[in-house]
Specification:
Layout lengths: L7 E5 L5 H10 L5 E5 L11 H17 L4 E4 L2 H14 L5 E2 L5 H7 L4 E6 L1 H5 L1 H10 L4 E6 L4 H5 L6 H17 L3 E5 L7 H8 L4 E3 L2 H14 L11 E5 L3 H12 L1 H4 L5 E3 L3
Parallel strand pairs: 1-2, 1-3, 2-9, 3-4, 5-6, 5-7, 7-8, 9-10
Helix pairs in contact: 1-10, 2-3, 8-9
Bound molecules: D-glutamic acid.
Length: 270
């Protein structure tokens, strides 16, 4: 039906959600995807829950005007602060959220000492506390937030001395606690995985949420019988900030295998 061939939407405050987008592209190659970055308002990670709810409801309203069939919130900060709010506000719309994979981390950890690295708002949220209590009750959990990493990814600065310096500082509590598993609780951070690994050591498992979110998206599409029947997907990119910058940075961080799928970013005003 026509519903099936509508696009799914992937939203974030910036380019970070592309770490989820790329897993959805891989798992669901027939789905068309509209990516929306609220780059004019980044960072979300230092904003209040109320502000995040207002901003994200504007994003969803725009996406409904684009007739998307499902929304993936590819942003932990938006998920923990606004998912419940958005589901109440848009009860007919399937919405998939992104949270750190606490349960998987607790399962793969041998030492039962795990870390979660998020933004400040996410680390301090009740939602994250509840995840930890529900899914890692037998673990010691080091739950840390920072507002210093997102801008590096937004600039496409995925290595270098100043990044290393910040990472050394941010990752110290995890190293001191001797965690053997680190869950990334912000969708920007998977782009820093190589540099994080250099600092925490190759024996520490680093887990992001991309594949779990892609699988959940597939499940919801299947359960609603709205998987795409189309074979030629389209990929569209909107940003509330500068389109050329978004396109350049997105291509740069996504890697050469997928950079060809990113073009024609368009600026929108909400
Ligand atoms: N990518 C967002 C997340 O997953 C955070 C970026 C921001 O602070 O806006 O939490």
């Amino acid at each position: 039906s026509s519903m099936n061939n509508r696009s799914i939407a992937v939203i974030d405050s910036g380019v970070g959600g592309l770490s989820v987008w790329k897993e959805i592209v891989s798992l669901l190659p027939h789905e068309s995807i509209v990516y929306l970055a609220d780059s004019a308002n980044i960072p979300y990670g230092t904003k209040s829950a109320d502000t995040i709810q207002q901003l994200s409801s504007r994003l969803v309203n725009f996406l409904l005007s684009q007739e998307v069939k499902l929304v993936v919130i590819a942003c932990n900060t938006m998920t923990v602060n606004a998912l419940d709010f958005l589901r109440k506000m848009f009860p007919m719309l399937p919405i998939v959220g992104t949270v750190p994979v606490v349960k998987t981390a607790a399962t793969v950890s041998q030492s039962k000492r795990i870390g979660i690295l998020s933004t400040i708002t996410t680390a301090q949220s009740q939602y994250q506390q509840d995840l930890i209590h529900a899914f890692a009750p037998e673990c010691e959990v080091i739950n840390e937030g920072t507002d210093e990493l997102v801008s590096f990814v937004e600039r496409g600065e995925l290595q270098g001395e100043s990044l290393t310096q910040i990472l050394e500082k941010v990752l110290t509590p995890f190293k001191q606690a001797g965690v053997d598993t680190l869950a990334l609780g912000c969708t920007h951070y998977p782009f820093l995985r190589d540099e994080i690994k250099k600092i925490v050591g190759k024996d520490v498992h680093i887990l992001d949420s991309g594949t779990a979110v892609a699988r959940q998206t597939e499940r919801i599409l299947r359960n609603n019988s709205i998987l795409s029947e189309r074979h030629e997907p389209t990929y569209t990119f909107y940003t509330t900030s500068d389109a050329a910058t978004f396109e350049r940075i997105a291509k740069q961080i996504i890697g050469h295998r997928m950079s060809g799928l990113i073009r024609h970013a368009e600026h929108i005003t909400l």
